[in-house]
Amino acid sequence: KYYQTYQKEGLGTQFFRIRKRLINTAITAFISLFIVSKCQTRGVVKNFRQMAWFWLHAIDDLWYDILEEMSVMIKHIELAELESKKGLIIDVREVYEYAAYHMPEAINIPAGVLLENPTQYLDKDKTYYIICAHAVRSEKVCNILVRQGYDTVNVLSGMSCYL
After folding, report:
1. How many degrees, rounded to 5, is the angle at CA 80 between CA 76 and CA 85?
2. From CA 103, how far away is CA 100, in angstroms rounded?
3. Of 133, 94, 100, 91, nearest to 1 (Cα)?
4. How far apart are CA 11 and CA 69, in angstroms?
5. Which of 46 and 83 is assigned the larger pLDDT?
6. What is the pLDDT of residues 5-21, one digit of tens each?
7. d(Cα 63, Cα 18) in Å, to the nearest integer?
8. Diameter of the chain by CA atoms?
9. What are the backbone angles phi and psi of residue 68, rounded to the nearest 5°?
10. Are strands 107-108 and 127-131 parallel, antiparallel or unpaired?
11. Which tens digit of pLDDT belongs to each residue from 128-137?
12. Exposed, middle or buried by CB within 10 Å (0-12, 13-18, 19+), for 62?
């Protein structure tokens, strides 16, 4: 579902472009190392390790570039600080999780439902505090919503610390 949301927002193209860059670099590295290893067995190339380290660092640098390009600055807040803040608290857990226990002031909109049509539930002029069980889903939801222009704050540690 998250990928479909990325695709709707045009982020699928960015994902495939980055994936293509990573695959091309890996293929180039593999071919280069293969050629160098064949030359090394014939005594032509003596610095095989140096070439291998070069390509490993090139792929590593590319990976960090990809992570930096894909990441968005998400605001975070601790659960204890949440009481002093003004804004709507949205619990993105599933309905059955929410029914088990929840904050009285939080409203439940499951992550899949919220991401399917955020304009139905959110206003870009308001601040929303997104919470889930352990702050994993809420971080993903915040990441997607921030890219769409919403002001969201991820509640760290989630509902697991609320009990």
Report:
1. 65
2. 11
3. 94
4. 12
5. 83
6. 444 444 455 556 666 77
7. 9
8. 73
9. -65, -40
10. unpaired
11. 999 999 888 9
12. middle
Q: Please give the pLDDT value at position 63.
A: 67
CA distances from 99 to 13, 93, 96 (A): 38, 10, 5
Q: Which of 17-26, 121-130, 147-156 has the highest mean pLDDT?
A: 121-130
Closest CA to 138 of 126, 121, 155, 150: 155
Single-letter code of the amino acid located at 81: E
For residues 6 and 15, give the distance between their C-alpha atoms in angstroms, rounded to a whole number.
9
- How much is the pLDDT for 7? 44
Lowest mean pLDDT among 3-7, 28-32, 84-88, 91-95: 3-7
